[in-house]
Amino acid sequence: MAGQTRIGGAAIFNHGDRALRERAMHIGLMMECEVRTGRTQSAAFQDAFDLAATAEALGFDAVWLAEHHFAPPGPDATTQVRSVVAAPLLLAAAIAHRTDRIRVGTAVLVLPLGHPVRLAEEVATLDHVTGGRFELGVGRSGLPGAYEGYGIPYDESRERFLEYLDVMRRAWTEESLTFRGRYYQVDDLTISPKPFQLPHPPLRAAASQPETYPLMGTLGLPIFAGLRGMAAPELAPAIRAYRDAWRAAGHDGHGDVYLRIPVYVADDATRAHADPEASTLQAYARLRRSFAGSVDAEGAGAQERRSAVAQSLSNATYDELLRDRLAYGTPNQVARRLRSLRDSLGLSGLIMEPNAGGGIAPDRVQRSIRLFAREVAPALRP
Fold first, then answer.
1. What is the rounded distance in angstroms from the CA atom of residue 209 to the CA atom of residue 230?
2. CA distances from 145 to 72, 74, 149 (A)
C-alpha cells in the first residue's frame, strides 16, 4: 500500500501519509477535567465545557483530553483529585458541538484497552461529527492500573499497541480489511464510515521514556514529548534519537514534536511560584508513586529506568522541579523559557498543562490561562 511499509509485523506510518497541516507554532490547552473539592462530577463536566469555550475565545488552536480510569494510585487515593474523562471521544464530541473553530484532540487514548475495529469506527464517526476538527493522540500508558481494571496484562501492552494501531489505520484506508495478529484477528471487513479527514485524522503518539522515542521515529509518528518521566535536560538526546530513527526509516521531514508542559503565569514571579506549589508537589508525589509501583513491557532496562525516575522524583525539591520540569513565572519569564525549549528542541507545538495536580484555585487557573494566551502565546509564534 502506498505510503506504508512494515517492520516486525507493525505498520510504519510515512510522513506523507497523514493529513498534517502546514501551520505556525501549535498552541494547545490540556484538559484533565478534575472534580474539584466540594464539587460534583456533573459540575466537572460543565467546567470542562466552559474551559473549552474560554480556550476558543482566547485563540488556542486545540484542547486536548487525557484518558483516565479508576482512582489514582497511593494510600491517599480517596482524597486525591480525580478526572471524569473515562470516555474522551464522547467528551470530545460534546465539546465540538459547543464550539465553532477550536480543534479537539486526545492526549492520549490508551489503545490496548479496547478493540481496534470498534475504535476505528468511533474515531471516523467523530471526525465527521466535528467536521474534521478532531486530532487523535494515542499511547499505551506507562501505568498498569487501567490494564488491571480491564483484565489485560500490562506486559502485553507494547505489542498490543503496535497491532492495534496497524489494524485501526488499515481499517480507515483499505476497502476490505483482513488482519492476522497475535492479539487481533479480522476477516474481510469493510469499515464505514471512512474518516472525514483523509486518509484519517492527524495521528500523534505519546513518548514518555527514552526507549519510546526511536520506536516512534521508526514508525514515522509525530509525538507528544513530556516532562513527567523525563527532565528537560534529558529531552534533547531523546528527541535527537527520535529524529535519527525517523531519518533512518526514510520518512520525509524531520519528525514533528509537541511538548506538554505545566505552565503557570502570574503578574509577579513570587506569586507565580507560590500559587501552584502545593498542587504541583502533590502531582509529582503521585507520579513518583506511580513510577515506583509500575512494571514495564520493555524489559529490565526500562524497569530500572522507571525505578530511577521514582527515586529522582522522591528527592526533587520544588526549585528543581521549577528548573527542570515546569514553566512558571511572569509572562516574560514564561515566554523566554518556552522560546528556549522551542528553539533548542525544534518543537512545532506546545501544550499548556494549566493546573498540575488539579489543586490550584479555579480563578487563578483562569487568570493564568488568560495571561498565557494574551502575553505569552504571541511571543511563541513567528
1. 7
2. 8, 11, 6
Give whole-number Cα distances, 362 to 36, 42, 119, 278, 355, in Å.
9, 16, 34, 14, 9
How does pLDDT run across 98-135, given as a tens digit for each residue? 999 999 999 999 999 999 999 999 999 999 999 999 99
Strands 257-265 and 327-329: parallel
Residue pointed to by grid coordinates 487481533: 184
Report how far residue 273's alpha carbon sits from residue 367's, in angstroms, rounded to the nearest whole number. 14
- Left (φ > 0), alpha (ψ -120 to 50) or beta: where does 5 sit? beta
Q: What is the pTM of this model?
A: 0.90
Q: What's the rounded Cα separation, in Å, for the pair 222 and 279?
A: 30
As given in the structure block, the three cell numbers for residue 21 are 497541516
Long-range contacts of 313-316 (CB under 8 A, 24+ apart): 313/284, 313/285, 313/287, 313/288, 314/288, 316/284
Q: Which grid coordinates are listed for 297?
A: 513491557
Pick the closest to residue 380 from 273, 270, 265 (CA basis).
265
Strand segments (E) across the chain: 4-7, 10-13, 26-31, 62-65, 103-106, 109-110, 134-139, 177-180, 185-189, 203-207, 223-226, 257-265, 327-329, 349-353
The whole-angstrom separation of Cα 109 and Cα 140 is 8
Give the confidence band of 16 by pLDDT, cuts at 50, 70, 90: very low
Q: What is the rounded end-to-end Cα distance, in angstroms, of the chain?
A: 37
Q: What is d(CA 97, CA 75) in angstroms, rounded to the nearest whole number?
A: 39
Return the C-alpha cell found at 251.
520518512
Beta bridge partners of 61: none
177: three-class secondary structure by DSSP: strand
Tally of CA atoms within 13 A in the half-sphere of 229 that contains its CB: 24
Phi, psi of 298 (to 5 degrees): -110, 15
72-84 pLDDT, tens per residue? 544 444 445 578 9
- DSSP 3-state helix, strand, coil percentages of the chain (rounded to 5)? 50, 20, 35
